[in-house]
Structures are given as C-alpha cells and as structure tokens.
Amino acid sequence: MRSFRRKIGLAFIVALFLGSMSGPGGAHAAEKLDIRSWLNRPGVKVVAVEFYATWCKPCMKAVPRWQALHKKYQDDGFRLIVVNTLDPGGGCKAVGWNPDKTICDIEGVIASGFGVGGNLPSAFIWTWQGNLLVRKGHIDVAEKEVADYLRKN
Fold it and tell me: Which of 4, 16, 71, 114 has its CA 20 to 30 A from that of 50?
C-alpha cells in the first residue's frame, strides 16, 4: 500500500509538472515548484504547499496559524511553501513572515496544475516518502495531519 501511495504521489507531481508547462509561463512556473526536490532534501519529513491570495479573507485569517505551525515543526522537518495565486491586486507582496519558499503564481498556472482553481485557501501536504496526506485542505486539517504524522514518525 505504501508503494502504491508513493507512486500515486509521484505521478501527481509529474502530472503537475507536465500540465503546468502547457500554459503561458508554464515551464517557468513548474521550475519554481518541484515537490520531489523538496521531499529529497536532508532532514525533510513533511512538505506543505498552501495556495492563497490577499483578497481571500479565509486565506489571510489562516496566515498566523500557518506561521505558528511552521515555527512549531520547522526543526522537526516540516517545510512550508506558500503560493500567492490569482492575486493581481496583491502583486505577490511578501507575506510578512518567512515560510521556506514563497512563489508568485499570478496567472494561476501552478494552482491550475494542482486542480485548485479559485478554491482558496487550499493546501497539499506530502510526507518525505511521497505520500499525499492532505489534498485541497484547510489549516484545521493541516495542523492535525502534520502533528499526527510527526508524532508517529
């Protein structure tokens, strides 16, 4: 079962890469978000990708909770990538704190590759083995899954 989940997770990553290359600026956007390389980094146990926009009230309300989650588990191998998407008015301004990576996806190329569309906020979380723990989740789900996974592992 673990091998099957890993294959599905890696297939999703490949599909994201190939799918995001089809739009304008797609190759550039795909180069900016290589989940596999994050999962293969030494000491990394969990990688979360959070899609948000400054116009999205639930997104902005979740920011302090993402910041606290990142701070709490960073030393335990938790990495957080935030993707500002579909936010032309926000202009991809700095989020005001330091996640592991911030990506500007104004045209929504990366969000589209993940199947997010305009459904924000939306988070995806992988384990270092390539298993997808959360798909299109919110901070409540992310907090629980990250804590549970890191406690068990």
Answer: 4
